[in-house]
């Protein structure tokens, strides 16, 4: 169902997270191949994708989101997937123009496009830059060919490094992803690989610990004993190596899995973690909007062709809309915000939840060295508490 429009569409509803910014997430769901570890909403199509038809549908859904959340100014756009770099540059330009037409894009807005090394070429990247993209995020995942093959990636390590060089030549800001805690990976090998990654003048790295997700080929292999990731103790050592090497290189963690030089943090992802407002557009996209009487969550149809049919019939592909209670909002804010090194503002938590954090539980976690009071009044997970974040959130949200 779709939530009703605010009584006065010109009036932006007051809300404790309105000052964080307004982002737009655009999900392009198509990939050249499905990686065996991936549980994202990505799909392989052997026939060419009808980009003009999908672009028209994106435009319609953007218009619908703008009707639900009018009078906003877009501070960040993130084109994720899937593999957005499989799109033609003119399709990307059309998407950005549609967002600008609907809300207006702030002059300093961050506009990020995800890319895989196999879909990187200098001419295409020049087209994305001309379209308005000012930051790219490359899915490198590993810097040795054996690991890349094991992860089901289609590129080599040299192709990945060439893609990094092309991205750096076209964009002032760029990031790339690596996956660690891979089968048979040792702390010494990860330390060397991470040092090599940092040598490529990285300003931002997303470093994800491999997780075995239900429904993926890796899950079946693990269940059959044919894929054995590092044990918990080794995974923790690999996490500690990550913090040490990146910190010494001047890219400390600003979020559990993200490291950046000061000022180079992903502004769009910070908006998520600071519990800002964002529209989710495209197949399987999630959104969080402030619409009377409060904050709502939206989820669109996952199947690309199903989403396309919904949009063409109804003007949007939203399959679920949920009015978020005060408890929901407080818990989400806590779950997202404690991922950040900066932590959370307890006053904002109280405004969302309708009650403050439990002082006794908080004191116990501080005494255990898992949570700390920052000088600015914020509350943050400590280096010891960050690896057990889910337990911290559960304790504080109770």
Which CATH top level class of the largest domain fits?
Alpha Beta
Return the structural class: alpha/beta
Q: What is the typical, i.e. mean, pLDDT?
A: 92
- Please give the count of helices: 14
| Biggest pleated sheet | 9 strands, mixed
User: How much beta, percentage-wise?
Assistant: 15-25%
Number of domains: 2
User: Termini distance?
Assistant: 30 Å
How would you sum up this structure, described in words?
Helices cover 39% and strands 22% of the residues. It is α/β, with parallel strands linked by helices and 398 residues long. The chain folds into two domains: 18-272, TIM Barrel (Alpha-Beta Barrel); 325-398, Orthogonal Bundle (Arc Repressor Mutant, subunit A), CATH 1.10.10. It has a nine-stranded mixed sheet with strand order 9-10-8-7-6-5-4-1-11, sandwiched between helices. The protein has a three-stranded antiparallel sheet with strand order 12-13-14. The longest helix is centred in the first third of the chain and has 18 residues, at 51-68. It is globular. The model is unreliable at 1-13 (pLDDT under 50).
Notable features of this structure?
alpha/beta, TIM Barrel, Arc Repressor Mutant, subunit A, 2 domains, nine-stranded mixed sheet, globular, disordered N terminus
Strand-helix topology:
Blueprint (H helix, E strand, L loop, with lengths): L21 E7 L1 E2 L11 E2 L6 H18 L5 E8 L7 H14 L2 E11 L6 H10 L3 E7 L3 H6 L6 H14 L2 E8 L6 H12 L5 E6 L7 H7 L8 H17 L4 E3 L2 E3 L6 H7 L3 E5 L4 E6 L2 E7 L3 H11 L3 E6 L2 H12 L8 H8 L5 H9 L3 E3 L5 E3 L7 H9 L1
Helix pairs in contact: 1-2, 2-3, 6-8, 11-12, 11-14
């Amino acid at each position: 169902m779709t939530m009703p429009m605010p009584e006065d569409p010109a009036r932006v509803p007051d809300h404790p997270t309105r000052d964080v910014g307004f982002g737009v997430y655009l999900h392009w769901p198509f990939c050249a191949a499905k990686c065996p570890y991936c549980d994202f909403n990505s799909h392989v199509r052997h026939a060419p994708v009808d980009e003009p038809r999908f672009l028209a549908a994106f435009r319609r859904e953007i218009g619908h989101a703008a009707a639900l959340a009018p009078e906003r100014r877009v501070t960040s756009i993130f084109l994720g997937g899937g593999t957005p770099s499989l799109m033609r540059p003119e399709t990307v330009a059309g998407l950005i123009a549609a967002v600008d037409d609907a809300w207006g894009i702030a002059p300093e807005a961050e506009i990020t496009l995800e890319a895989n090394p196999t879909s990187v070429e200098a001419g295409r990247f020049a087209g994305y830059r001309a379209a308005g993209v000012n930051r790219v995020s490359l899915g490198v995942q590993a810097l040795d060919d054996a690991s890349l093959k094991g992860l089901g990636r289609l590129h080599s390590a040299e192709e990945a490094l060439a893609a990094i060089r092309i991205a750096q030549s076209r964009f002032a800001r760029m990031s790339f992803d690596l996956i660690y805690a891979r089968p048979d990976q040792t702390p010494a090998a990860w330390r060397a690989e991470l040092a090599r990654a940092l040598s490529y003048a990285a300003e931002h790295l997303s470093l994800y610990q491999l997780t075995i997700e239900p429904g993926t080929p890796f899950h079946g292999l693990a269940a059959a004993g044919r894929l054995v990731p590092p044990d918990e103790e080794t995974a923790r050592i690999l996490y500690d190596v990550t913090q040490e090497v990146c910190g010494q290189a001047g890219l400390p963690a600003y979020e559990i899995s993200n490291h950046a030089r000061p000022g180079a943090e992903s502004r769009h992802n910070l908006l998520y973690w600071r519990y800002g407002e964002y529209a989710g557009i495209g197949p399987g996209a999630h959104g969080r909007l402030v619409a009377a009487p409060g904050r709502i969550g939206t989820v669109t149809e996952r199947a690309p062709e199903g989403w396309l049919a919904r949009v063409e019939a109804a003007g949007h592909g939203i399959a679920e809309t949920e009015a978020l209670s005060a408890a929901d909002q407080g818990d989400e804010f806590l779950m997202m915000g404690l991922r950040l090194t900066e932590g959370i503002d307890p006053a904002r938590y109280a405004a969302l939840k309708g009650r403050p954090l439990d002082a006794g539980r908080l004191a116990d976690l501080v005494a255990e060295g898992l949570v700390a009071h920052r000088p600015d009044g914020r509350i943050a997970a400590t280096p010891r508490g960050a690896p057990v974040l889910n337990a911290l959130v559960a304790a504080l949200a109770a």
